[in-house]
Specification:
Length: 210
């Protein structure tokens, strides 16, 4: 079986501790559906810029948690290859009077909900009130204090604490149903999970596909 060179080139951007596992996962995909990877290699998909395996810059032996999203954002500037980490988002907080989360965060629905979940888990918001004045108060306090200000900082802290930020499907194609791509990536995902099994990471699954 021959994995397309474009896919292998993207694999080289992953941490070296993952290379053998990721190649095994790709081979499992080929065995299950021989036509899929060759077709993908000549198709247009997100993420671009060889970021297909960007989640795997987190070394295998550092993984303590696996956060699983559905798939890449459907916008080139947003799809980074790392779940929930929207490349179009810089600042987290609105600069407007009475504002909550920034407009780019609100545009990315899953990221907006993810941020609200973190604020509820941290006790800064209640589950019953995650909008309006409650969120504006959190935003004002965050901007005035030492709170995390950017999405890049969120990603850094998550990876520092051992999160692997993985999507169930590693690609998004507007002309293919996301669930169909996710099904094709399932053998790959299963291979990754087997490699992590002895570490017994905590799984956080987000969305129907995950």
């Amino acid at each position: 079986m021959t994995i397309p060179s474009q896919i292998l080139q993207a694999l080289e951007r992953a941490d070296s501790s993952w290379h053998a596992v990721l190649k095994e996962g790709l081979e499992a995909m080929e065995k299950a559906n021989p036509a899929y990877l060759p077709e993908l290699a000549v198709d247009s998909y997100l993420p671009t810029e060889l970021r297909l395996f960007a989640a795997f810059t987190q070394p295998l032996d550092k993984v303590r948690y696996v956060l699983v999203g559905e798939g890449p954002y459907p916008r080139a500037e947003s799809a980074t290859g790392v779940c929930f980490m929207d490349g179009a988002v810089k600042g987290l907080w609105s600069e407007e009077e009475g504002g909550g989360l920034s407009k780019p965060v609100n545009k990315a629905t899953s990221l907006r909900n993810f941020m609200k979940m973190l604020l509820v888990a941290d006790g800064q918001l209640s589950e019953a009130q995650t909008n309006g004045e409650a969120l504006a108060a959190v935003s004002a306090q965050a901007r005035a204090g030492a709170a995390v200000q950017t999405l890049a900082e969120v990603q850094e802290r998550l990876t520092t604490h051992g999160f692997l930020l993985l999507n169930a499907s590693l690609v998004f194609r507007p002309h293919i149903a996301p669930v169909k791509d996710a099904k094709a990536w399932l053998p790959f995902f299963e291979t990754v999970m087997r490699a992590l099994a002895e570490r017994k990471p905590t799984l956080v699954l987000w969305g129907k596909i995950a």
